[in-house]
C-alpha cells in the first residue's frame, strides 16, 4: 500500500481519477461481489478485456466490455499481468499503448481478486458429486462457482456435455443428482441407455460444460413432452414445440378444444389404447405402420380411427389432420406433465 500511495502522490491531475479507481474496487470488496461481477465490472472500467486465470482451482474467467464472463484459456500474449499466491494470474489486455491508470487498475484488480477469491462461494473439495452436479446445473451460480465445481468433478469447462432429466433413471451411469422428483444425469458422448421399464427422460442439447445449465433447462422441457408411448424426447427434435413450454399454463391448455376432445377419448373404454394408436399414427404416418408398431393387426385400426375422428371432429389420416392431432397430443402432455403432478399417459 505504501508504494500505491507514493504513486498516487505523483499523479497530480489524475489523482481524483485514481481515488475513484480505488473506491470502485473497495466497494466491490466490501460488498463481497462474486468473481464474475468483479471481472465483468473491471472490464467495463478498463474498457478492454480482463481476466483471472487460476488453473489449480479450475477457474479461468475473462470478460470484455459489455459482454458476460466466459471461460477461455490463459492470458493473451502481451497482456499486463500480476501473479498472486497459489499461481493465480490476473491480467488486463489493452490494445495499443497503456493509459496512465492501467498499473493502478491492475494492482487493485489483483488485490480485489485475492480477497474475493478467499471469501468466494466456490465449492469446497469435500462436497460430494451430487452436490457438485447440482451446483453445476444451477442457474443462480456464477461462472466462477460453476467452473470450480466442474474442476472438482474432473470436467474441463470446454468439454461437450448433455443433460438427461428423467424419472426412474437412478441406475443410469454418469454424474448425477436427484433434483426434486427428477434426476439429472450429465453425460459425454452417447446417452446412457436403454432406459429401465417405466422410466422417462428428456435429453438436452450438447453444450460446453460451462453452459450446461442451459442443457438442463432444455432437458426438463423435453421431459414434459414424454409419454408412456414415447418415454424419451430429445429437445433438439422438438423444434418450435419447445417454445410452448411456459407460454400456456395447465388451465389454458385444458381449455383447448382438441385437448378436451382427447380427454373424452381417454375416458372411454379402451381410451388409452385409442390414444396410443393416434400417437403411433402421428409417428409413422400410416395406419398400417401404426398397427405394426403397436403389434396389432392392421384391421383393428379403421374402427379406432373412425371413433377418434367422430370425437375430434376432423380427419386424422390426412397430413393436415395428423399435424393438428400431433399438436393436440403434445399440448395434452405439456398440460399433464407439470411438476409435481405425475407424468402423463399417451
Spans where pLDDT lies below 50 across 5 or more residues = 1-10, 340-345
Structural class: alpha+beta
Write down the oligomeric state.
Answer: single chain
Q: What's the pLDDT, averaged over the residues?
A: 83
Structural summary, described in words:
45% of the residues lie in helices and 13% in strands. It is α+β, with helices and mostly antiparallel strands. The chain folds into 3 domains: 2-119, no CATH class; 158-244, no CATH class; 250-336, Arc Repressor Mutant, subunit A, CATH 1.10.10. The strands form 2 sheets. Strands 5, 6, 7, 8, 9 and 10 form a 6-stranded mixed β-sheet that branches. Helix 2 (15-30) packs parallel to helix 4. The N and C termini lie far apart (69 Å).
Blueprint of the fold:
Layout: H1 2-9, H2 15-30, H3 35-46, E1 50-54, E2 59-63, E3 80-83, E4 89-92, H4 102-119, H5 129-137, H6 143-153, E5 160-167, E6 175-179, E7 182-187, E8 200-203, E9 207-208, H7 212-224, E10 232-234, H8 250-254, H9 257-267, H10 271-284, H11 287-293, H12 301-312, H13 319-336
Parallel strand pairs: 8-10
Antiparallel strand pairs: 1-2, 1-4, 3-4, 5-7, 5-8, 5-9, 6-7
Helix pairs in contact: 2-4, 3-4, 5-6, 9-10, 10-11, 10-13
Keywords:
CdaR-like_regulators, PucR_C-HTH_dom, 4-stranded antiparallel β-sheet, PucR family transcriptional regulator, 346 residues, alpha+beta, elongated, Arc Repressor Mutant, subunit A
In short:
By secondary structure, this protein is α+β, with helices and mostly antiparallel strands.
